[in-house]
Each structure stands twice: as C-alpha cells, then as structure tokens.
C-alpha cells in the first residue's frame, strides 16, 4: 500500500455546486485544514455547470462553513484562497481541456507533486462518462498518483453495477478507485474491529458457541424530504442495506485479518459476503419483510404518509422500512441469526449494534416470572457514540438476587474533542492512499447479488402499504421475524 504522511494533491470536486459538496465535503476539508492535517500543498477545484467565478465559489464555500465558525471573518483567506472554480459540462470535451490547464497551473503553484483526486459528487449516470473523459483527455495521467472517489449508489442492481464498474475500470485500475461508504468512516463502525480484536473477553466469545444473535439497526425519524425522486426509485433495501448495513455486518462477522492492511481486511470481509446464505426469491418472506409509513406523529407533531409527501409518490410501492434475517454459513457463525432493520419516519433516529450473548445454562438468581437478561454488548454508532456492556450483578436488596446493570463508555465525553466526521476521515485516507475503509468491487458485486434476489422475490407480490405508522417502530411483521426464533428486538433508545 502506497502511503505518504503529508497529503499533497489537487482535489477536483465534480458537482461542487451540489448538496453533498456543500453539506459534507467543504466542511470536511475545512476541518482537515483547521486541524493541520492538510496545509500548503492542497488546492481544491470546484467543477459544475453554473457560470461561477472563483469569488462566487469561495463565497459559497464560506456559507457552507457557517455552522463551524462564529463569524465569516474567522475563515482565513489562506484557506479560501486555495479554492478555484471551473465551469464545466462533464459531457463536453472542451471542459476537460480547460480543467487540465487549471490543474497543471495549480500543481506548480501548490507543489502537489502531480497528485490528483477526482471526487464524483454527481448523479451516478455521469460516473462512467467522467471516468472515461478523464482518461481520454489526459487528466488521469498526472505526474503523481491519481485517485477517483465515487459516491453511492454504485448501480441499482448487479447488472447495472457491473456495467458501471466496466466503464470506470476501462479508465482506472481497481487500486485507483475509492468507492465511498460513509458508514465506514464513522468512528464507532471503525471501532468494531478494535473492540473485537483488542479485547480477549470479546475475541474469545465472538462465535456461535456464545452469541445467540446480533442486531443491527439504523433508524431515521426523517421522511424522504427533497430526495423523494431518487428514494422512490431506490427504496430502503438499496439505499441502506446493500451498502451500509451489509458493511457493518461484514465487520462484525469477519475473521481477524492477518494484518490491518487494505487487502487483508477486504479479503476477510469478502469471505463474509460469500458465506451469506442466499435468499431464494420465493422464500423471501421467511427472511425479509418490508414496510412503508402511513401518516402518524413525530415528537407530538402530525406527519404525512409517504404517499402523501409528494404527488409523484401517490400509490408508490417503494419500501421505506426493511427488516431481515441473514445467516452466515461458516464455521464461526452457523446457526446465529444476524438481524438488520432500517427505516424512515421511525420513532427514534439512531444507529446501533446489539450483540446478544447466550444465557447461563442454569438460572440461579431468577424465578420463572423474573427472567434473566442476557449479557449484551451495545455499540452505539450515532447519534451517541459509545459502548455499553449489560451485565447482571447482585441487587442491594436483602437476599441474594441479581439485577441488570450497565457499564457504559461514551465517546461524546472523551476529552471534549468531537470525533472527526466520516467524510473528513475518508478524504484524508484517500489522500494518504489508504483504501481500507472504501469498498472493493468484489464486495459491491456480492452484496448486490444477495440483494437482487430479495428484490426479485418482492416483485412477485404486491405489498400492502402503508403498514406502519410514522413515529412507530416499524411494521408488526418485523417483530414476528424475531419472535419465531425466540428473540425480540432490543430497544433503539436508552439501551
Ligand atoms: P445535487 O445536489 O443534485 O448536485 C449535483 C451536482 O451535479 C451539482 O453540482 C450540479 O451542478 C452538477 N451537475 C449536474 N449535471 C452536470 C453536468 N452535466 N456537468 C457538470 N456538472 C453537473 O446532488 P448531491 O445530493 O450533491 O449528490 C451527489 C452524489 O452524491 C449523488 O451520486 C448522490 O447519490 C450522492 N450522495 C449524496 C448524498 C447527500 O447527502 N446529498 C449522500 C450520499 C450520497 P450544476 O447544476 O451547477 O451543473
């Protein structure tokens, strides 16, 4: 793996006038600059169709930072002056010639050693065109490294992902492609490996002898909002499960890598994807259930149903909730269900992982009415970041009785330093040539293969939507999915 400690690069952001650049990329670049992780040798080129000049673009970047600083004056000119704008239409050859000229000039001014990062913050239909044009017009062949960062969604099924990958791979090698899954940049998702591989008490018990089931939840209280057009074509299983949920599952289930290096970690994750038991379309209902929210209440305020949010969503059959049971057919995990659930307009906004350990073989401290709570390891991914271990200990009542207690560690309290945002870490990793927390094509392909047969099964039947109230915990069928195995979902909040 090529590595360098002090990033030097021209970062070109295609789609620099868009939402992602504004909300995530500029603030992340600012934080990297503010924390001294990038300095003199980085310049940023914004590229989009709007006929902006450098000054307009810098004002736009400034606006994006307003929740990071108290006043505009605080944003140093030394930071803003490294942002440049080139008006481009990515389908037009002349755009690439102009861009090449600007990049070459900046490479000299900022002494970036000819390193180039092309960040595609644009609709996926442009990914192939941009990659091929970067090659055709020589932008890919700088004096240093060239890396291509690609946003999700990477296809909408396996054939479309394969087609997109072929287009991108005609121009770039796999080692140059950094497919973003921003969950992999989250502090607590990166912590899964450390918790597992640096602690004997978990490392030794992390298997089907001691773990009864694992639950991964990512719930949102928001609805679809202005992303409705994209979301309605995608749905929860494509938007969340194919990428973020399966990536967390892979980190929870993989074998320890022999080294913490990109290829080693990826190859262990790929083995997990290969071991996931495929779900036959005709049996989909046994393993996966879907839902769509009806009208309800969030924080005491009435909210509309999905279908009422926009006229384009009337009579839509797109799922806004999905829960599933995934089995991993390998020696370590045979017989342990991994349950996942994700949904919009749920009662709580949270992402968390609950590892439920098997109970003691004999229940000494509880009678039949009073049930012994199993030990749980809870990894809070967001909004709280931390770890909680649920144990049983002696209660201070007379007699020898046990009661559940919690050992908690919250990262939010840690040294009052806020954890870097996922995008911040991933941008830096990319500049340093560390692709560990980006997804390899094999992971993308195997996860689409798994998801495609679920979608195929769903296409055979018309869903009865809406089937859960906005502000609830999702459809009743999600509870039954676990109950038939003798389990139940652990709460999303206060656990
Ligand atoms: P967006 O707000 O619609 O921005 C799209 C950008 O593309 C704009 O800057 C637009 O600028 C530019 N553009 C469109 N056609 C162009 C052309 N022919 N030539 C040059 N530029 C063109 O989209 P977004 O929300 O930022 O999303 C960008 C990508 O990130 C998508 O793949 C999306 O799925 C992914 N993503 C977004 C988010 C998010 O939170 N927004 C989260 C995860 C993933 P002009 O109109 O000025 O050309």
Task: Tell me what you see in this structure.
It is an enzyme of class 1 (oxidoreductase). The protein has helices spanning 19-34, 54-64, 77-80, 93-110, 127-136, 158-171, 187-197, 200-203, 228-234, 236-253, 262-275, 284-287, 422-432, 441-459, 476-483; strands at residues 9-14, 42-48, 83-87, 116-120, 146-150, 177-179, 211-219, 288-291, 293-294, 296-298, 301-303, 321-326, 338-343, 350-357, 376-382, 386-394, 402-410, 468-469. The chain has 495 residues and is α/β, with parallel strands linked by helices. An eight-stranded mixed sheet has the order 8-12-13-7-14-15-16-17, with helices on both faces. A six-stranded parallel sheet has the order 3-2-1-4-5-6. Helix 1 crosses helix 13 and helix 6 (158-171) packs antiparallel against helix 14. The longest helix has 19 residues, at 441-459. The mean pLDDT is 94. Bound molecules: NADP nicotinamide-adenine-dinucleotide phosphate. NADP nicotinamide-adenine-dinucleotide phosphate binds at residues 15-20, 48-50, 88-91, 121-124, 151-153.
């Amino acid at each position: 793996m090529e590595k360098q400690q002090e990033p030097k690069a021209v970062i070109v952001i295609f789609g620099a006038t868009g939402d992602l650049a504004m909300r995530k990329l500029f603030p992340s670049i600012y934080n990297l600059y503010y924390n001294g992780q990038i300095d003199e040798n980085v310049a940023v080129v914004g590229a989009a169709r709007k006929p902006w000049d450098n000054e307009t673009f810098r004002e736009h970047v400034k606006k994006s930072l307003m929740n990071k600083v108290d006043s505009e004056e605080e944003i140093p000119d030394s930071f803003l002056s490294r942002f440049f704008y080139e008006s481009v239409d990515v389908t037009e050859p002349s755009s690439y010639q102009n861009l090449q000229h600007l990049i070459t000039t900046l490479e000299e001014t900022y002494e970036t050693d000819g390193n180039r990062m092309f960040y595609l913050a644009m609709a996926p239909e442009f990914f192939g065109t941009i990659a091929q044009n970067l090659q055709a017009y020589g932008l890919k062949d700088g004096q240093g490294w060239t890396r291509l960062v690609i946003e999700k969604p990477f296809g909408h099924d396996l054939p479309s992902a394969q087609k997109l990958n072929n287009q991108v791979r005609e121009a770039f090698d796999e080692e140059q492609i950094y497919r973003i899954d921003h969950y992999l940049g989250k502090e607590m998702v990166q912590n899964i490996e450390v918790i597992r591989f640096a602690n004997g008490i978990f490392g030794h018990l992390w298997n089907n002898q001691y773990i009864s089931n694992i639950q991964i939840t990512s719930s949102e209280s928001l609805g679809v909002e202005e992303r409705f057009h994209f979301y309605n074509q995608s749905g929860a299983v494509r938007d969340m499960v194919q990428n973020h949920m399966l990536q967390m599952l892979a980190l929870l289930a993989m074998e320890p890598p022999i080294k913490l290096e990109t290829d080693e970690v990826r190859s262990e994750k790929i083995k997990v994807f290969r071991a996931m038991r495929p779900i036959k379309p005709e049996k989909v209902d046994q393993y996966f259930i879907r839902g769509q929210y009806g009208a309800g209440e969030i924080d005491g305020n009435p909210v509309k149903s999905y279908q009422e949010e926009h006229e384009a969503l009337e009579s839509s059959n797109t799922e806004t909730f999905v829960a599933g049971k995934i089995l991993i057919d390998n020696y370590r995990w045979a017989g342990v269900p991994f349950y996942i659930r994700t949904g919009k307009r749920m009662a709580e906004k949270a992402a968390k992982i609950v590892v439920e350990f098997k109970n003691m073989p004999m229940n000494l401290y509880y009678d039949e009415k009073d049930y012994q709570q199993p030990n749980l390891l809870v990894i809070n991914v967001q909004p709280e970041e931390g770890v909680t271990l649920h144990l049983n200990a002696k209660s201070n009542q007379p007699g020898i009785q046990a009661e559940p207690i919690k050992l908690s560690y919250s990262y939010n309290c840690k040294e009052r330093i806020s954890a870097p945002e996922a995008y911040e870490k991933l941008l830096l990793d990319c500049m340093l040539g560390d692709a560990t927390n980006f997804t390899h094509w094999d992971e993308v392909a195997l996860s689409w293969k798994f998801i495609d047969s679920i979608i195929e099964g769903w296409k055979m039947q018309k869903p009865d939507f809406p089937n859960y109230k906005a502000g609830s915990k999702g459809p009743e069928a999600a509870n039954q999915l676990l109950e038939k195995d003798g389990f139940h979902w652990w709460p999303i909040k206060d656990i």
